[in-house]
Specification:
Blueprint (H helix, E strand, L loop, with lengths): L25 H15 L3 H10 L1 H5 L12 H7 L2 H6 L8 E6 L13 E6 L17 H10 L16 E6 L9 H13 L8 E6 L13 H11 L3 E5 L20 E6 L25 E4 L3 E4 L5 H5 L4 E2 L3 E4 L2 H18 L5 H11 L8 H4 L6 H4 L20 H5 L5 E2 L2 E2 L13 H10 L3 E2 L2 E2 L2 E2 L67
Parallel strand pairs: 1-3, 1-4, 2-3, 4-5, 5-6, 6-7
Antiparallel strand pairs: 8-10, 9-10, 11-12, 13-14, 14-15
Helix pairs in contact: 6-10, 7-8, 8-15
Length: about 525
């Protein structure tokens, strides 16, 4: 049986190497706007708000190759991380859960800094297929958050001492359903205090175009439950620029930290906001921005993005990407640093500190930049000003189908739709919502009445600690038996990892629509 899958269009919110072509370079535009700011004084805020609404017309964009690069050292400098490094903070003892396409054992992720949680992806069901990354996005995010060569002068991510907990939800072509993401979040909440884990941060570098209010959306409910359980949730705002009037789900939930992208590649003191970074709405826009233009991180040799966008390779080990995905990963690593320095902080206090201390970007407008550019050095010493967030909570009683928006996985021409999860389990929000809030949605390896994974840290993979895998049984949403699925050219079992890449691999042609790597 052949299988065809179409992934969530916004999952892994990355546009790689976006370059501005219209109206001159961004650095030149920034210089002009800076001069205008000096002349206009107090009126600049009004004018920049108007400019922000027409940013696509003002700058234009090439959704392709950009010659600019931002090394991790440049990124770290831009957000003040070296101040914390000098004090001995590296994110040590802080767990960051990365719900993404998985991670592969490339240099920088093999120093014992990665452990594997459950593999909830479609590809993870093939023999020898679990705990890897065929798409390349997860590995890139992992490098930004917690990469560590473990040698002096080697590559390091934002928090090289943190423990990165990889919860794989995306397949090798990026395919994923919102039910898999919700299951992954619930697993993190249930196991956040497991020995040696201490998960204090969740990174979600993707989202959907949900068609319902966050106050009923189940994905919003899941991230709020994690937030109230003491986990800082960092979500990519999206890469729709001004083309979509809302942020992606779950960044649209006002409790989480919604992150936009900043371009810091010019080397000036005046960063800008790329036109692809989502502006949201007047009532809900990004909370702050972080470097997300042409960020250089670890390459996943032979992955989908590596194969289809060779121009994005930087040497033999690295790969550059642009998007709010990368920006969110920068913030997640910064939060790990902050929590090591100030471990008693609550999620609300972390968000308040980051927003209160962000570098203001008045020329960008609040819809584009939120409170401004991340400054973790300032956040590490600033007093907490302001109380807890009091937004209306999400009930989670809305529709799972509405949470998908227009994004669906497909098998044998049958899309996953309606109120059912990827295993065909009936979605009953009145049962799931209170269990998720209580942290009991998982029981061993069972979630939403079906067995999704093993039930212990007793699995085997390339990482030193791995959650046990299992084979899915029963039928999928199309009524086909999971045991008879053949993943066609996407099957991992015949492929072996080598220093050069995946040998004899034929890649699917699926990519995330409207986002490109180069």
């Amino acid at each position: 049986m052949s299988v065809r899958r179409r992934g969530v269009r916004r999952l892994l919110a990355s546009v790689v190497s976006v370059g501005v072509l219209v109206g001159g370079s961004q650095s030149a535009q920034a210089s002009v706007l800076g001069a205008l700011g000096g002349l206009l004084g107090s009126t600049v805020g009004v004018i920049t708000t108007a400019l922000d609404t027409t940013a696509g017309l003002l700058t234009g964009a090439d959704w392709g190759y950009s010659a600019s690069t931002a090394s991790m050292q440049q990124v770290q400098q831009a957000v003040g991380a070296p101040t914390l490094y000098a004090q001995g903070y590296t994110g040590r003892s802080i767990g960051v859960a990365l719900l993404d396409t998985g991670v592969v054992p490339v240099q920088g992720l093999t120093a014992g800094n990665v452990i594997n949680g459950p593999d909830l992806s479609l590809d993870g069901q093939g023999p020898g297929a679990s705990y890897l990354d065929g798409f390349g996005h997860g590995t890139h995010m992992a490098g930004i958050i917690a990469g560590d060569d473990a040698v002096r002068g080697g590559f390091t991510g934002m928090a090289p001492g943190a423990t990165l907990v990889s919860v794989r939800v995306g397949a090798d072509d990026g395919a994923v359903d919102v039910s898999q993401v919700i299951a992954g979040i619930d697993w993190v909440v249930a196991h956040r205090h497991d020995p040696g884990v201490n998960i204090r941060v969740i990174n979600l570098s993707y989202g959907t175009n949900s068609t319902q209010a966050y106050t009923s959306d189940p994905l919003a409910r899941a991230v709020e439950n994690a937030w109230r359980a003491g986990i800082v949730v960092v979500a990519a705002g999206g890469n729709s620029g001004t083309n979509q009037p809302t942020l992606d789900d779950p960044a649209l939930d006002p409790y989480v930290i919604a992150v936009g992208s900043a371009d810091t590649t010019s080397g000036t003191l005046l960063p800008s906001v790329p036109s692809f970074s989502s502006r949201g709405s007047a009532t809900r826009h990004v909370d702050l921005v972080a470097p997300g233009q042409s960020v250089v991180s670890l390459r996943d040799p032979g992955s989908v993005v590596d194969t289809e966008y060779p121009a994005a390779r930087v040497g033999t080990r690295f790969f550059k990407g642009s998007g709010t995905s990368q920006a969110a990963a920068v913030v997640s690593g910064a939060v790990a640093l902050l929590l090591q320095a100030r471990p008693s902080l609550t999620p609300d206090q972390v968000k308040r500190l980051l927003m209160n201390t962000a570098q203001a970007m008045p020329l960008a407008g609040s819809a584009a930049a939120g409170a401004g550019l991340l400054n973790v050095a300032a956040a590490s010493t600033a007093p907490v000003i302001g109380g807890n967030q009091t937004w209306a909570p999400s009930s989670g009683l809305g529709s799972l189908e509405a949470a998908r928006g227009t994004d669906h996985v497909v098998t044998n021409g049958v899309p996953l739709t309606g109120e059912q999860d990827v295993l065909g389990g009936a979605w009953v929000p009145a049962v799931w919502a209170p269990a998720s809030a209580a942290g009991t949605a998982w029981s061993g390896g069972v979630w939403n009445t079906n067995v999704w994974s093993g039930g212990c840290w007793c699995g085997l993979s390339w990482t030193p600690l791995t959650w046990a895998a299992t084979r899915w049984t029963g039928s999928d949403w199309a009524g086909d038996s999971w045991s008879s699925h053949t993943w066609s050219a996407e099957l991992w079992s015949s492929h072996t990892w080598s220093g050069a890449g995946w040998s004899s691999h034929t890649w699917s042609s699926h990519t995330w629509s409207s986002h490109s790597w180069s």
